[in-house]
């Protein structure tokens, strides 16, 4: 018997559920076979779940939750509900969805570390060409603390050059090693200046950990400054199809700006000499 196609909303739910299961598995560095064994399910079932073809009973359970006007998580909560937990959920339900991310960042900063402790670990974020390595190494030398470049730590963690890491594991694999490297840095270095790759904002859990445990500074610059500085570093690739490269750069900056703006400080280095940019950075930390 052929089953009728699922409504779009249900199919979309199964797709999102599959991505969530796959992301969690990859964060824990588990293969599908290992997870299937740990969960005592078939690898075929797990594959169907991750590709958005989960069992129809999952959708039916979601419909029951919707009819009861509760979330699927609430329906599956079988442990005795504590008053504090219930109050937190009710509080979160009243907050507009667009404000949840900001609230989580603030909460992470409060419970993750004291502000004074975070200031001992300064993280510079932004796209390549913003001045993270140049200004960061100078700041670390002045403060007498280690200067840590995240890309080098990721290579040490994976045992592979970045190009080979991307080739073998792709973007998701790189993000996993990035998360592990950041956790190790935070544990090992109570005081440091860290240069962080511009794409860290793409992985919410890693970025929230960075914001909670480091005093973050977004080194912002105009797209034209980014490109000219990259070229000055000897990378001539942006010159090939420069109009397309500039359009991509502007799009990336626009997409990431809301996340970059969550940093503790924003330092605009556009049009500044290295000395002037460094003085502006020092003032922002004073």
Question: Key features?
Answer:
15 helices; 2 domains; globular; 434 Repressor (Amino-terminal Domain); alpha/beta; Rossmann fold; five-stranded parallel β-sheet; 286 residues; 8% strand
Low-confidence stretches: none
Oligomer: single chain
CATH-defined architecture of the largest domain: 3-Layer(aba) Sandwich
Mean pLDDT: 81
Biggest sheet features: 5 strands, parallel
Can you tell me the CATH class of the largest domain?
Alpha Beta
Decide which structural class fits the backbone: alpha/beta
Architecture overview:
The relative contact order is 0.10. It is built from 15 helices and five strands. The longest helix is centred in the middle third of the chain and has 27 residues, at 162-188. It has a five-stranded parallel β-sheet with strand order 2-3-1-4-5, with helices on both faces. Helix content is 64%, strand content 8%. The mean pLDDT is 81. The protein is globular. It folds into two domains: 8-78, lambda repressor-like DNA-binding domains (434 Repressor (Amino-terminal Domain)), CATH 1.10.260.40; 102-285, P-loop containing nucleotide triphosphate hydrolases (Rossmann fold, 3-Layer(aba) Sandwich). It starts with 7 loop residues before the first helix and ends with a helix. It has 286 residues and is of the alpha/beta class.
């Amino acid at each position: 018997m052929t089953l009728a196609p699922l409504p779009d909303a249900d199919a979309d739910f199964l797709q999102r559920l599959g991505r969530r299961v796959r992301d969690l598995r990859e964060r824990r560095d588990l293969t599908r076979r290992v997870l299937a064994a740990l969960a005592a399910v078939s690898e075929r079932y797990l594959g169907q779940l991750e590709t958005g073809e989960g069992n129809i009973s999952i959708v039916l359970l979601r419909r029951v939750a919707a009819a009861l006007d509760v979330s699927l998580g609430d329906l599956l909560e079988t442990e005795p509900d504590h008053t504090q937990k219930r109050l937190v959920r009710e509080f979160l339900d009243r907050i507009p969805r667009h404000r949840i991310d900001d609230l989580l960042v603030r909460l992470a900063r409060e419970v993750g570390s004291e502000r004074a402790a975070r200031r001992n670990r300064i993280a510079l974020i932004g796209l390549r060409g913003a001045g993270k390595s140049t200004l960061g190494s100078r700041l670390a030398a002045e403060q007498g603390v280690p200067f840590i470049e995240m890309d080098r730590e990721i290579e040490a963690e994976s045992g592979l050059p970045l190009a080979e890491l991307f080739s073998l594991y792709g973007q998701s694999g790189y993000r996993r090693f990035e998360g592990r490297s950041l956790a190790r840095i935070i544990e090992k270095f109570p005081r440091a200046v860290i240069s962080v790759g511009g794409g860290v904002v793409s992985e919410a859990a890693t970025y929230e950990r960075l914001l909670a445990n480091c005093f973050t500074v977004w080194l912002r610059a105009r797209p034209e400054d980014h490109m000219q500085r990259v070229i000055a570093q000897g990378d001539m690739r942006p010159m090939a199809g420069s109009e397309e490269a500039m359009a991509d750069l502007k799009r990336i900056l626009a997409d990431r700006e809301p996340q970059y703006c969550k940093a503790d400080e924003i330092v605009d280095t556009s049009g500044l000499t290295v000395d002037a940019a460094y003085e502006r950075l020092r003032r922002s930390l004073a």
